[in-house]
Specification:
This protein is of the alpha/beta class. It is built from 26 helices and eight strands. A four-stranded mixed sheet has the order 1-4-2-3. Strand 2 and strand 3 form a beta hairpin. Helix 4 crosses helix 5, helix 16 packs antiparallel against helix 18 and helix 19 packs across helix 20. The longest helix is centred in the last third of the chain and has 33 residues. The radius of gyration is 28 Å and the shape is globular. The N terminus is likely disordered.
Length: 611
């Protein structure tokens, strides 16, 4: 044993005693029958049912694939259910019991901190399996599955992990297509469209033609302008010079048309053209489909997207998209089912004060986990340092006790399944925190963590959309902390959002106006709620005039900046990102204030001359 090992062992042994609050909490592994689940649900506080989550959990329970993963059903000090509504409803729906950890005597005011971990994605699962280019593989499958079901551009089709598993297992060309896309960086074709085209070409038996086509889209192309790749590259170059962006699906369509001509050896003398085919879908005044439902009903598959000639389709990619859940099966489902069958029942939870030294030691057991998100660590770190960290009964989970001595190099070691971001935050904050630690959790439970919807900020009593108010609160938090309103990397925690909304109680009053048509034509309700609150705080009279101007557009002179804003925003509501919309609004508000100041001064000077 090294000196460093002696230091770590010495520090780990000095574990502080649990606080009085932690000592009140109780954790117990229980079997919940459908009858008990119904009784528990009667005590729920403001229950919200997620039909998709309930159907997915119910399917797993009915198939014997529900695994105890350490995430507890939680009750507060008064015995009211504050977390676990979807799981309990699933138990009732499936009609079978399930085993889970139950936490009791948890403070009710920690509700907003539950389920605030970064969502676990299928990309994270592939990363844990060591699949190369995991993100690209998932994005490529997503496009191809939607194309296979005719939903691309028509609806945001939800795709289950079990479907991804089936597709990945049945289509080995996916990994090859992503390898080819990675090897052709610098191509004129978008990085998301490139592996999709590559996969279709590989499935059509056109690898040689694909490689020659992609070569001509790269920086060292030699083909003339009368060739399909030459015309395609020239077209994209012209659009690039005009600062005109090309949507990924549009780029894929044009590249597919060019590739089909390339395979046939055609000479071309004009640009490729493709427009979305909306069929007989009713359109609004701006020439856009009146609704997503109308688009699904009237538009052709994939809005008429062309496919590679000879493409036979995606193996195992088609399914009943109208069903609430996909079919049971795939590698993840089978692994969880196996874990359920081999579970030895050694799960237990204990409260611990985790020190920075313990966190460093425990992270050595972090194998095959998803990538670290520094921004998420920073959010937790701020909560710890600002005294906002709350003990909320959600454990850090291990397969074995991380504090138990390991006997010999050949002995099995614990694996950290969930909680790496909290451990990194403890180290960076250099402050210990109290956390429940679950041990004896089956290894197969890894893929089941953080897959359900993130809990939203709830503010009982306000007749507003909680999600909209949270979005506005995020922007206000950035303003209060002198951070850029746009861009990534600065995200408040749920506690920080709630504190911000408490500091700005009048923000909720902006919500009703933000939902009126004249405002939603400009930007999203979250952006507009923040913006309305901002301008009326900065100057009540000018703010009201500015808002009336952008909402109604009445009596606007040619030199009024509001007219420019309305002209820019009209018809672009779906074409601008939230960041672009907010930047546009603030720039015009600043211009309006300068214009108004000059105008009011001129009016005042005129009155003085009259006097």
């Amino acid at each position: 044993m090294t000196a460093a090992d002696d230091i770590v062992e010495s520090e780990v042994q000095k574990i502080p005693e649990p606080s009085a609050e932690a000592a009140k909490l109780s954790f117990k592994v229980e079997e919940i029958t459908p009858e008990r689940a119904s009784e528990m649900l009667e005590t729920a506080v403001n229950p919200h049912e997620d039909r998709k989550a309930i159907a997915t959990y119910s399917q797993a329970m009915a198939n014997g694939a529900w695994i105890l993963n350490g995430q507890p059903i939680i009750f507060d000090e008064d015995g009211r259910l504050i977390d676990g509504v979807q799981r309990l409803n699933a138990c009732v729906s499936a009609g079978v019991p399930f085993k889970t950890i139950v936490a009791r005597n948890v403070r009710a005011d920690t509700l907003h901190t539950i389920d605030q971990h970064r969502r676990r994605s299928y990309q994270g699962v592939l990363e844990s399996r060591g699949v190369r280019h995991a993100g690209k593989v998932v994005r490529t499958m997503s496009k191809l599955i939607r194309i296979e079901n005719g939903s691309l551009g028509r609806e945001n089709l939800p795709i289950s992990w079990s479907r991804y598993d089936r597709v990945l297992a049945a289509n080995p060309e996916l990994l090859e297509a992503c390898d080819i896309a990675e090897a052709t960086k610098g191509s004129m074709l978008h990085s998301t469209a490139r592996p999709v085209l590559a996969f279709m070409a590989l499935r059509a038996g056109l690898k040689e033609e694909l490689m020659s086509f992609l070569r001509e889209l790269g920086p060292h192309r030699t083909a003339g302008l009368d060739t399909p790749p030459g015309i395609f590259c020239m077209h994209l170059s012209i659009l690039e010079q005009k600062d005109t962006s090309v949507h990924v699906d549009h780029a894929l369509a044009l590249a597919t048309l060019a590739f089909n001509d390339h395979v046939q050896g055609k000479k071309v003398n004009k640009h490729y053209v493709w427009e979305e085919d909306y069929g007989s879908t009713p359109m609004d005044d701006d020439g856009k489909p009146i609704s997503r439902a109308a688009l699904r009903e009237h538009a052709p598959a994939n809005l008429g997207l062309p496919l590679v000639d000879g493409y036979p389709g995606l193996r195992d990619g088609r399914y009943d998209t109208s069903s609430t859940t996909d079919e049971f099966g795939g590698q993840i489902d089978e692994e969880i089912q196996h874990g359920t069958q081999t579970d030895e029942g050694k799960e237990r939870v204990k409260m611990m004060t985790v020190t920075p030294a313990m966190a460093r030691n425990w992270l050595t057991f972090n194998s095959g986990n998803r990538k670290i998100q520094k921004n998420h660590i920073e959010v937790i770190k701020r909560d710890i340092l600002n005294g906002h960290w709350m003990l909320n009964a959600q454990p850090i989970c291990f397969t074995m006790d991380p504090e138990a001595p390991v006997k010999g190099n050949a002995a099995p070691k614990p694996r950290l399944l969930n909680g790496q971001h909290r451990l990194h935050a403890i180290i960076e904050a250099d402050v210990p925190i109290e956390v429940p630690i679950a041990v004896g959790i089956p290894d197969e439970a890894f893929a089941t963590f953080d897959t359900h919807a993130k809990r939203t900020v709830r503010r009982a009593g306000n007749r507003v959309d909680d999600r909209v108010l949270a979005a506005a609160g995020k922007l206000q938090w950035k303003e209060d902390n002198n951070l850029p309103l746009t861009g990534t990397g600065n995200t408040p925690s749920t506690t920080e959002i709630i504190n911000t909304l408490n500091d700005h109680p009048d923000m909720a009053k902006a919500f009703p106006r933000a939902r009126r048509k004249g405002m939603t034509d400009i930007g999203s309700a979250g952006v507009m709620t923040y913006f309305i609150y901002r301008v009326t705080r900065e100057h009540a009279e000018w703010g009201e005039d500015f808002l009336d101007g952008i909402e109604y557009g009445a009596d606007l002179g040619k030199d009024n900046p509001i007219l420019s804003l309305r002209n820019m925003a009209k018809g672009r509501r779906g074409g601008l990102s939230r960041a672009e919309t907010l930047t546009m609004l603030i720039e015009h508000w600043e211009t309006y204030k300068a214009w108004r100041k000059k105008k009011d001064k001129k009016s005042s000077d005129s009155q003085l001359k009259l006097v």
